[in-house]
Amino acid sequence: MAKTKLTIFALLLVLAALFAIVEGREPVTDATADTGVQELGKFAVEEYNKKKQQKVEFSKVVQAAKQKDSGTKYFLRIEGSNKGEMKTFNAVVLVKPSDEKEMLSFFPRR
């Protein structure tokens, strides 16, 4: 029984790794301590606030992944407060080869 569970677990790990390769995203190790990722999170919140005339206050990026494309796309999970309530948001920021940043999406996480 234990051997079967171990085999299933190993198979799931292999499938997860294959999905990550196909998807092309790689996790950012310790995103909370990565100053570059934190700056991208602040940028995303500032852009969102400008475009939607909101007042979300940036707290921190708690999780991030990146994908090489025409530049690098960063998939961010951001904590921030909106009207005094802590919320989690998902954002995608593209950093172009010229180092120009563009927010592609920003929305509350459900």
TrEMBL record:
Residues 1-24 form the signal peptide. Residues 20-109 form the Cystatin domain. GO terms for molecular function: cysteine-type endopeptidase inhibitor activity. Keywords: Protease inhibitor, Signal, Thiol protease inhibitor. This is PHYTOCYSTATIN 2. It comes from Hibiscus trionum (Flower of an hour).
